[in-house]
Amino acid sequence: MKAITYAQYGSPDVLELTEQPMPKVGPGMVLVRVKAAAVNPVDWKVMAGYLDPMMDIQFPAIPGWDVAGVVESVGLDSPEFTVGEEVLAYGRKDFVQGGTFAEFVALPERVLARKPTSLGWEQAAGLPLAGLTAYQVLTRLGVGAADTVLIHGGAGGVGLLAIQIAVARGARVIATASETNHAFLRSVGAEPVSYGAGLTGRVLAAAPGGVDVVADFVGGVLETTLAVLAPGGRHASIADGTVEQNGGTWMWVSPVAADLRALADLVDAGTLTVEVARSFPLEEAADAFRLSMEGHTRGKIVVRVS
Questions:
Q1: What is 130-250's CATH topology?
Q2: pLDDT for 161-192, tens place per residue?
Q3: Rounded-to-integer distance, Cα 1 and Cα 62, Å
Q4: Fewest Cβ atoms closer than 10 Å to its Cβ: which of 28, 71, 119, 255?
Q5: 17 in helix, strand or coil?
Q6: Cβ(91)–Cβ(105) under 8 Å?
Q7: How far is CA 282 from the centre of its chain?
């Protein structure tokens, strides 16, 4: 099968389109014919070696954890899915090697969910990791209808989904973004504020009593978070471990299929959609990584496989 691989840590220049063996499909596993895979910042951080202290890797490695595709075959004792079903997954494994930037990927049945019928392949590929991150952070923080929520990084792939999930729960949402994205954020139910110098004042002008919840999806904003948090407020970050020393929660997304099914239900109910910033063919995956590394796209970056 064709796959994007890298044989050593490095920049996107180490990525190559190569021929790789078909994945083996063991008990409890499902072989997925990949239609699309999404790029996430963690993909190029792993490729650069930043996560080497905490994750094992086997070279040549196929990057990618997000996938949308069709069930090609199922392993022994894998009763949940049948050949031909359309599925999606956050396919993180115990070590980095057989990822989703390939024509086929074998995944544990327990991480898969059925694709929302209302999403195309590219949108579906952009949902799992970002959607699960947003959903699990907001769930851990107990976001509900009585809350005013500040989302740092509202125009990013995770932030946009978090806005919609929080709004669906009845919360008031304030979200940071550049001014070019303010109109779009309003269209998904947020009150936008510009990030950068003076952010604390702008948030407190919008919420004079402070906010109940802060969800940080960008990092480097702890000072503002603590300054705008109302007494008894809750906060979490996916990008800044120091929140733990300041009463917050540092989170890492988990591949929970039940949460993915809940996201799919929100999509098919019309309350959640996935914004795709740009898509690339598989052979141009390096360019997709480079765009992700720039950090200025609105929504998800996707690679088309088949």
A1: Rossmann fold (3.40.50)
A2: 999 999 999 999 999 999 999 999 999 999 99
A3: 12
A4: 28
A5: strand
A6: yes
A7: 19
Whole-angstrom distance, CA of residue 3 vs CA of residue 1: 6
Segment (H or E) for 201: helix 199-206
Q: How many residues are present in the chain? A: 306
| Category of 27 on φ-ψ map: left (φ > 0), alpha (ψ -120 to 50) or beta | beta
3-state percent helix, strand, coil for the chain, nearest multiple of 5: 30, 30, 35
pTM exceeds 0.90, yes or no:
yes
Q: What is the pLDDT of residues 198-240, one digit of tens each?
A: 999 999 999 999 999 999 999 999 999 999 999 999 999 999 9
Q: In Å, how far are 39, 64, 82, 92, 106 from 75, measured between CA atoms?
A: 27, 22, 10, 18, 10
The CATH H-level superfamily of 2-127+274-304 is Medium-chain alcohol dehydrogenases, catalytic domain (3.90.180.10)
3-class secondary structure, 220: coil
Tens digit of each residue's pLDDT (9 = 90 or more) over 115-139? 999 999 999 999 999 999 999 999 9
| Burial label, 157 (beta-carbon count in 10 A; 0-12, 13-18, 19+) | buried
The answer to whether 65 and 27 are in contact (CB under 8 A) is: no
Beta carbons within 8 Å of 259's beta carbon, 6+ residues apart: 132, 135, 136, 139
User: Can you tell me whether residue 39 is helix, strand or coil?
Assistant: strand
- Sign of the torsion angle spanned by Cα atoms 58, 78, 302, 306: positive
Question: Where in the chain does DSSP place strands (E)?
Answer: 2-5, 16-19, 29-39, 57-62, 66-74, 86-90, 96-98, 104-108, 112-114, 148-152, 172-177, 191-194, 211-216, 229-237, 249-250, 276-281, 300-304
d(CA 132, CA 257): 9
Tell me which residue of 82, 77, 87 sits closest to 33, measured CA to CA.
Answer: 87
